[in-house]
């Protein structure tokens, strides 16, 4: 019995590791471009989605693609991504729920809440708040005010720069804040109309992502692909031969083997 057991034991001990199937190479995986339609170009780090798993981006920065439109969900609201500026770390986004109508989601409409650990409103763009107030009872007038519209047979209004409602109007809500560019707000002030409000909302507003890009620029410059350690959340630079480093690839990611890198080496 002993004679039969030992070879089997050795086979189990040493035979299994050589059977490991070849797996994904990190540099190749994270070098894959994530494109969605033609409008925003390649979607860069810290974003992930499509063929790029979370470890090719930074946690929370997931984008998806629907009918060639890149989408991102922030505080449970979905936004269409209209433009990406990698240098300024900004996205121009528009609310998906208000894209094709101002009434679609009432009464479940929510505020545009962007301020999270991942994003902030981009202050330099000076985008403006617009209030939408639903469920109102407005006195019948010979001509409708230009900022009034109908949703579910009740009146709704929009206001720029938080103009107060007149006392003759009572509203059950919801009241939600949306954002448009400064020039769209100026246009709406001189020509308040529902059509212009709709196109203004489709123009979007700017938000800035929080994750530092300099790490990634240094990593890319050394021939690596950016990503993160999903356990610790820290930045990772993926390099040749499936090696990864905290910042850049050594020696410009030339043909250095992983075993060479992992061994202590003394330059003489
Ligand atoms: C590369 O490293 C990852 C994570 O350590 C591993 O899952 C994968 O199998 C490796 N791929 C190759 C080709 O060695
Ligand atoms: C949106 O924010 C305004 C102002 O902070 C608040 O009065 C309103 O109730 C909020 N609306 C919703 C739907 O949460
Ligand atoms: C616009 O609304 C956001 C919340 O949606 C708020 O944080 C911000 O202070 C408002 N800005 C102005 C100028 O009222
Ligand atoms: C990720 O972080 C964990 C915890 O800090 C660490 O143990 C692990 O080695 C890291 N993995 C990589 C691939 O850097």
From TrEMBL:
Membrane topology, from the record: Single-pass membrane protein
Signal peptide from the UniProt entry: 1-22
UniProt entry tagged with the keyword Glycoprotein: yes
InterPro entries per UniProt: WAK_assoc_C, WAK_GUB
Domain Wall-associated receptor kinase galacturonan-binding: 30-95
Keywords attached to this entry: Glycoprotein, Signal
Key word Transport present: no
Protein name: non-specific serine/threonine protein kinase
Biological classification of the source: Eukaryota, Viridiplantae, Streptophyta, Embryophyta, Tracheophyta
């Amino acid at each position: 019995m002993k004679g039969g057991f030992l070879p089997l034991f050795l086979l189990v001990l040493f035979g299994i590791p050589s059977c490991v199937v070849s797996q994904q190479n990190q540099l190749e995986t994270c070098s894959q471009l994530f494109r969605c339609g033609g409008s925003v170009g390649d979607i860069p780090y810290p974003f992930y989605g499509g063929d790029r798993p979370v470890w090719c981006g930074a946690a929370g920065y997931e984008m998806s693609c629907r009918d060639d439109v890149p989408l991102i969900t922030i505080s449970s609201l979905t936004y269409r991504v209209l433009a990406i500026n990698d240098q300024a770390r900004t996205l121009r986004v528009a609310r998906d729920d208000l894209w094709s109508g101002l009434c679609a989601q009432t009464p479940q409409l929510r505020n545009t809440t962007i301020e999270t650990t991942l994003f902030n409103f981009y202050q330099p763009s000076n985008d403006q708040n617009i209030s939408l107030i639903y469920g109102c009872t407005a006195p019948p007038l010979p001509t409708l005010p230009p900022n009034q519209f109908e949703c579910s047979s009740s009146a709704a209004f929009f206001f720029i720069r938080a103009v107060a409602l007149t006392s003759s109007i009572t509203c059950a809500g919801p009241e939600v804040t949306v954002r448009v560019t400064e020039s769209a707000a100026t246009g709406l002030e001189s020509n308040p109309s529902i059509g212009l409000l709709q196109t203004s909302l489709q123009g979007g507003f700017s938000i800035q992502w929080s994750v530092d890009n300099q790490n990634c620029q240094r990593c890319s410059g050394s021939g690596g692909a950016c990503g993160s350690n999903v356990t610790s959340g820290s930045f990772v630079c993926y390099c040749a031969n499936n090696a990864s480093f905290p910042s850049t690839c050594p020696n410009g990611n030339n043909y250095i083997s992983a075993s060479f890198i992992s061994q202590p080496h003394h330059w003489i």
